[in-house]
Predict the structure.
Amino acid sequence: MDDIDPQLLRVLRAVADSGSITRAAVALGSSQPAVSQLLTRAEQRLGHALVLRGGRGATLTHAGQVLADHALHVQAALTAAREDLDAVGGLTRGRVRLAGFPSASSALVPAVLARMAVTAPGVTTSYVEVEPPEALDLLRGGEVDVALTFTYDGDEVGAVPDPGLVTRPLGRDPLALVTPVAADGPGLPGGPDAVRPAGSTAVDLASHRDARWIGGCPRCRGHLLASCATAGFTPEIVLETDNAAAVVGLVAAGLGVALLPRLALATTVIPAGVSVDPVDDDLARRVEVVVARGAERVPSVRAALEAVRSAAHLPA
């Protein structure tokens, strides 16, 4: 329909995300009167109420939400058209913005950026490190183009499908139990050889029910609590840090035990006195890549997705 323009879709998306016409205007770099007038004119043209205005903000009607759901992939289609036109003109340029979680920053992202430099040298690539919920918010807001995320079984993140996003699995990231090794006790002596192969016999979390535990990010802490509850106990979490190297250092100092993903351990030095053992494979997290629906048509985004899939050597 020629009476639905991309700006209207962007405005509706901004209202949906912010819950306010004023905040939507600020996010779009516009003024509140200009956004209100655009919405009023659109409602008159389309014959549908799009926004419910109230004293505490604004919400979309069903018709408004239907249009807002198209905002991300319409923007992706416009970007794809621009890049396709540039390609016809012999230009090799573009932009792709990535977001990813901390352990991906060291274990996956360097390989992704290096591959992009080779396969798409004309594309400007940027990266920001955030946890998955924030990465998805940035994606919905059009602030990034590709998000590396992870989910656990029973995790609320991604539990309700977002019609504006497309999620592609990259593989599983097994978890491991990181424990101090007693000088006269069993286990490996520490150092690089302390990481037991993923196929080794899994350690039962319940065997460490009396240990002091080190927690990670809020979602990882929630997964630790749920996993230990399944094993029949509640862990005593005495320390919390998102830094895998710090966790290993705390374990080496005998201050606790921890559950860490293999991606985080892949680039972490394992000192003497620390052992890393596999746990039940059902505890593994799923690593995924997420883009706006339709964004795969954008040449720069497509190149980034190919680079991500090439870099992610994870078990299925």
